[in-house]
Design goal:
Elements (H helix, E strand, L loop, with lengths): L8 H10 L9 E4 L4 E3 L13 E4 L2 H6 L3 E2 L16 H14 L2 H5 L5
Parallel strand pairs: 2-4
Antiparallel strand pairs: 1-2, 1-3
């Protein structure tokens, strides 16, 4: 069933509402009102279920006329710098904090 998870509407809605990253790559959420598609874990406020449709791939969502979300970058490949952008930013901030940048320059130094 996982290979066709995009066909289970209720399961997909629950994953999107929970921002469940375990479903990233298994399906893509298209928002009918904005014509944007996202990963299930997108940090934006989830759309109403009646405004959602689901696709098995980013290419399928694009083919249907949706454009990629600029926040979650669903068109980026897993493992690419764009895919892991948020984790990279957090890791950089943690390194700077550990190096004492906040003590010397304040939060602006991050």
């Amino acid at each position: 069933m996982l290979g066709r998870v995009h066909e289970d509407f209720e399961r997909c809605v629950r994953a999107v509402q929970a921002k469940d990253a375990r479903f990233d790559g298994w399906f893509y959420t298209a928002v009918l009102t904005t014509k944007i598609y996202c990963r299930p874990s997108c940090p934006v406020v989830p759309p109403k279920p009646r405004n959602m449709s689901f696709y098995p791939s980013a290419a399928a969502a694009q083919q249907a006329g949706f454009r990629a979300c600029k926040r979650c970058r669903p068109d980026a490949s897993p493992g690419s710098p764009l895919w892991n952008e948020r984790a990279d930013l957090v890791a950089r901030a943690m390194r700077l904090i550990a190096d004492g940048v906040v003590d010397t320059e304040g939060v602006r130094g991050l």
